[in-house]
Write a structure and sequence with these properties.
Radius of gyration: 16 Å
Order of helices and strands: HHEEHEEEE
Helix content: 10-25%
Distance between the termini: 28 Å
Structural class: alpha+beta
């Protein structure tokens, strides 16, 4: 089932599926594909940045993934209503520092999504915090299924 085929009103099952479709889409790191999951006039707040529409979303995502190397994301359903979904998410990425040293980070955050009748997202609000981690602390290493990682209560 494509993400657009999952339309409001949501059930526990359809909300969970919608979250995992979004997770997989974002893990492509393809701004064009990701932007198409949103309405043309979609409103976003990502931390302290505000944007509207596909062009601003694609520009934002392009810059984001140029900076966030090795990006791997996991989203989990937090709550839902008829046309809204809230998710808890975790993603890891690295930045290359002076001397070519990789500094890894894990972002912990929450998102609030509102959907249009056609199943595309029309509003997205994201709050997140980046925490420096070591290579050994990483959860989402290459070849690891992000859904198989056990995340302890300490992190939830």
């Amino acid at each position: 089932m494509s993400g657009f085929g999952i339309k409001p009103p949501f059930t526990a099952e359809s909300a969970h599926k919608k979250v995992k479709v979004a997770q997989d889409l974002w893990n492509t790191r393809d701004p064009e594909k990701v932007a198409n999951a949103y309405t043309p006039d979609s409103i976003w707040r990502n931390r302290d940045q505000f944007m509207r529409g596909h062009e601003e979303i694609k520009k934002f995502l392009t810059k984001k993934w140029e900076r966030e190397n090795g990006y791997r994301l996991r989203k989990e359903l937090f709550a839902f209503t008829d046309n809204k979904i809230a998710v808890q998410f975790f993603y890891e990425f690295y930045e290359t520092k002076e001397g070519g040293v990789k500094q890894w980070y894990r972002c912990y955050g929450l998102e609030d999504w509102t959907y249009a009748e056609d199943g595309r997202m029309r509003k997205r609000q994201m709050s997140g915090n980046d925490v420096p981690i070591t290579e050994e602390e990483r959860w989402f290493k290459d070849g690891v299924d992000v859904n198989s990682v056990e995340i302890s209560e300490k992190h939830l």
